[in-house]
Every structure is written in C-alpha cells, then in structure tokens.
Amino acid sequence: MPAKDQTATFSSEVLVAEGKEFFFAKVPPKISQSHLRRGRMTARIVVGERSFDAQMEPDGKLGHWFIVPSDVTKREKLAGRQPTFVLSKLDRQPEPVLPTSFASLLSKSPAAQATWAGTSTLARIDWVHWMESARQDATKRERAANAIDMLEKGKKRVCCFDPSGFFSKAFACPVEASE
What we know:
- A seven-stranded antiparallel β-sheet has the order 1-7-4-5-6-3-2.
- The protein starts with 6 loop residues before the first strand and ends in a 27-residue tail after the last helix.
- It has two domains: 7-89, Beta Barrel (Elongation Factor Tu (Ef-tu), domain 3); 100-152, no CATH class.
- It has helices spanning 29-35, 70-75, 100-107, 110-117, 121-132, 137-152, and strands at residues 7-11, 15-16, 23-27, 41-47, 50-58, 64-68, 84-89.
- By secondary structure, it is α+β, with helices and mostly antiparallel strands.
C-alpha cells in the first residue's frame, strides 16, 4: 500500500455541537481516505495564524471530524465560517491518555504491562478507543478488565473492534446545534 500524503488543504465549516460546549469541523471524505488511518489519530491543524494538534475522530462513514479549540475559534473568528485548514500528519502519534480504571489495573499486572510495552502506539490508541467507546461506565470498566486479561495472554491488538465505526455504525460526527 502506498504511503499516505503528509499534508492536505481543505475548507470546512466550523460548527457548534448540539448540547455540547465545543466547536468542530469535518474532514472531507477524500482527505480522510487519502491522509488519515480509518481509526482515531492525531494530526496537526493550521488555520489562519494558529496551529494545534487535534484528535481525528472517526465518523462511522470512513471520514473524520475534530474539535477546534475555543481560543482558536475566537481569535480567528471561525464560528459559522468555512475557513481553510491545512492538515499535516505527525511523525509520531502521541501516547493515548489511559482511562483511570485501566491504568489502575495495568499497574497491578506485570504480564499485561510487558505486552502493553511491546505494542505499537497505534495499537495502544485502538485499545483506549475501544474502552472509551462504551456508552456506560460499567461497560467501560468491564472492557478495562477484559483488556488486562487479553494483554496478560499476550494479545497485542484488541480483537473484534472496528476503529472506523463503519461496519458497526458505532461512531458518528456530533450533531450541529440548531439556532
């Protein structure tokens, strides 16, 4: 498979998420397919005079969306506008922030720690995404325990998880707030 391009330029409206206190933009499907992996990943975004690292979230349609920081939205006056964004792939993906319940369990299991240390950053991102994608806290805790069990058995990748949400329809872009 050929390497994905490193940068892309696109325009997208900056929207307010319904019932949420954040701004977001959608990555056009062609850009998602040619520049991003199907699952969650981080990219550098430049808009106007500002740049920031944004977590590209899968939308369940083989595309992505991302949060535009409120300070960037205010300083660049982006809300409701359709600015030009420049997306750049990072040379290295940042390590994911571990859910508290998983971090606690991981700290108590040397076998799981050894397998975790031997996985790639993208695999760790998928593990965390799988745990965080559960809707209920009880399911999140159950997935954390299951992750430890799988890691203790030497499993380096979470099985049966569609990080794009396309086949399971598990993920979606936020709904735009109506005025």
